[in-house]
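notes to self, project folder thing:

trying the whole complex as one job this time. last attempt i did each chain seperately and stitching them together was a nightmare. two parts in total, labels are on each line so i dont mix them up again. if this works i'll redo the older ones the same way
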Amino acid sequence: MAFVAALKEKGRPVAVHRPWPRVVVDEEVWRQAILGIAAGEATLLGLWSDGETVHQGVAREPANDVLVVSLPCPQRRFPSVARTHLPALRLERTIRDLYALEPEGCPDERRWLDHGRWGLRHPLGGKEAAPASGDAYVFHSAEGPPLHQIPVGPVHAGIIEPGHFRFTANGETVVRLEERLGYVHKGVDHLMLNAPLERAARLAGRISGDSTVAYALAFARAVEAAQGSEPPLRAVWLRALMAELERLANHLGDIGAICNDASFSLIHAHCGILREHVLRVSAGCFGHRLMMDRVVPGGVVADLGKDGIANLRTLLRTIRRRFPELVELYDNTASLQNRTVTTGLLSAELARRYGAGGYIGRASGRSVDARKAPGYAPYTTLVFEVPTRTVGDVDARVWVRIEEIGQSLGLIEQILDRLPDGPIRIEPGPASGGGAAAEGLALVEGFRGDILAWVRLGAGGTIARCHLRDPSWFQWPLLEAAIEGNIVADFPLCNKSFNCSYSGHDL
Amino acid sequence: MRKLLFQSLLQSALTEPPPSVDDAALAELASSVNRAAMRRLGRSLSIRQVDAGSCNGCELEIHALNNAFYDLERFGLRFVASPRHADVLLVTGPVTKNMREALERTYNATPGPKWVVAVGDCAVDGGLFAGSYAVAGGVSQVIPVDLHIRGCPPTPVQLLKGLLALFDRSEKMAGT
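result (full assembly):
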């Protein structure tokens, strides 16, 4: 029997958890799950808590056999996942910081999101008062006479989010990078507690601004799964349209920015123009440049008119005419290739172990895409491919994104051709089969990778608990590996080619 | 590459005419900006952007100010890499408690005369994140703010309208 199916048999299923089951297990089965994941029999999708219980999301690859394994923690401790499977480390440290649940045997005692600035400890698990003067943080050491440290951040030189990078360098070469994140922690898990549905949806749309559509979609799908409700068909297609526009805008902007970080500003300027076209057409169609708050539980709040369809078709023509010239220029400029080829290599083995999604995983040989597997409407009826590369360098990540632009253009065209008529929203409310304590899970492919959303409904149309896991959780640690042996000056290039989310990770 | 460059030469510019200056921004600045200092700096301001806790939505639109349509540098406004080179701090986000000290230190590292522009609804009062244990509040809770530009996120045109008010003020002052 397949590992995930066998695991399911060993637990007690909870009443309402859709569309995939959640089983409550004992410590022994919890450990078996960890061993299976570490042995590569399944991929870790997430690790989170609701205050009393810890949950592991696991999936057999490709992710069409999804299961949540839950361990109640009456003694406020659980066997560490990271002890055996390191990709869980930061998630586990976060559970300890926020919920005061101790991962027994966790190989890292340091706090992660808690910098000692909140004036309290364990905001979701007891709330003990504490000084807000800031904790000391000890970085892992690398020692030897020629080595020196370069601290960078949290405030960076560009217009980007804050985080701290501690480089240990041997001359120009990076020997070791250690990240310290959590600077933009806003307490989302806490703000979600008992939040009315409408407010919770707005919060979900602001976890990571560049992925606002993907997050709103993941949240809406999780809520709908818990309620057992289905949004109208037209809404499902409009959601996919918005999601592809978001992917297009981000890929165009980032490809330009990567070239800019290699000091090639011409492509940056032209990509910036194309990105601006996408945002303007999005604003014309849906009333907001980033399409924030357009996807809600029950459907969408903005319909697409005839003018919008015409403008979208013009946009497709514009990008198809102009973008190939830029790709040709990227491919034929030796000075640019010199910077991107063989820079920031990420091995296929590491990408697999961390279950890396998005262009980071796909540029290192992983053929994963939540739109394909587990898959969701309307993608199951649309024709598209998942571009992959095996080299795992900056260049491979750029190429995956170049090819994804082509796929997104094709998807938008198919959606425009086949967009069904009808209502765009069903009235939210206590839908059939839902009710308090009903739980839902969703996996949605954002431009950066798979976003996991888990919700438990509360009384009176509220959200009792909600956990949103950004793809960056499994990508940030890989950047530390990819930069090793590269020169310090190539870090911005490597970092931009990963483009992990700070806000999405810090929550 | 030559082909692309030639095409760009032959095309008309994409850059759009500047928007009218935001009246609310002018009114807010009238009471807060040091007029003599503003006059001294004339039509050139260096901006240092600081994300103090935003969701990154505001940063995307601030980035857009540099594209060919908005071309911020034509107004003498440019982004710089260090607070030591800056006249204006452009701060986004609800200020998280984990970023509070970094923001204060960035402010202190900026030489005077200096101005602080708070960008986005969260920067006004914490927005959707107000009241969280991890959030200190709006930017003015931590450092003095001269101008607020609202929006979630503000569009590039809204950002331009607000930023141009900095100049409009100084030019009117110069005329008096």
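what i see at first glance: Chain A is about 40% helix and 20% strand.
need to look closer tmrw
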